[in-house]
Amino acid sequence: DVANTLWSYATFGASPGRATYEALEAAAERTSSSMKPQNVANALWSYATLGEAPARATLGALEAAAKRTARSMKPQELANALWSYATFGAPPGQATLKALEAAVARTAQSADAQAVANELWSYATFGEAPARATLEALEAAVVRTARSMNAQDVANTLWSYATLGEAP
Predict the structure, then answer these.
(1) At what angle do helices 132-145 and 94-107 cross, to 10 degrees?
(2) Distance (Å, rounded) from C-alpha 89 to C-alpha 109?
(3) What percent of the chain has pLDDT above 90?
(4) CA distance 8 to 91
(5) Of 73, 130, 132, 134, which is least packed with CB atoms within 10 Å of its CB?
(6) φ, ψ dihedrals at 82, nearest 5°
């Protein structure tokens, strides 16, 4: 319910009032240990879309949940989680980033064009290419989804390759 409430505010483009925001943060922190992959990704995405990273304790709790659920995340959930951290301006801790990266490598073959572009954009924004196996999985996904990419996906993908010093 917490993730859905945050998602609703973000989708409508309206930030909750300060007291509501703080109550939602406390609830997100309190319930993060029972969140499912979609809840984690939606909560992270919501904070990033609202333009305000949650407090350190809430972000830490959501990071622990991301690490715990990464293995079960779908491509869009992974893309949303990585995009959120990139939008916050900092990657998650190394253990969480490794868990997310392993899941990206595993699911790249089923990711859609936007998810692939956003995952690449996130790594480029972090300033660090993923492991070679993950990059190769994403490259194969680019080849597979290129015809369905929109202009934003193409731009993000090419910028990512340029930033990471990789040839597409």
Answers:
(1) 40
(2) 27
(3) 89
(4) 25
(5) 132
(6) -65, -45
Question: Distance between CA 53 and CA 46 in Å, rounded?
Answer: 9
Q: Please report how many Cα atoms fall inside a 13 Å half-sphere around the Cα of residue 98, on the Cβ side.
A: 3
- Do the Cβ atoms of 78 and 100 come closer than 8 Å? yes
Mean pLDDT for all residues in the chain: 95
- Give the residue from 87, 37, 28 showing the smallest Cα distance to 60: 28
CA dist 39 to 53, 66, 97, Å?
16, 10, 18
Beta carbons of 140 and 109 less than 8 angstroms apart = yes
Predicted pLDDT at 30: 96
Q: How far is CA 97 from CA 10, 21, 144, 150, in A?
A: 24, 27, 25, 27
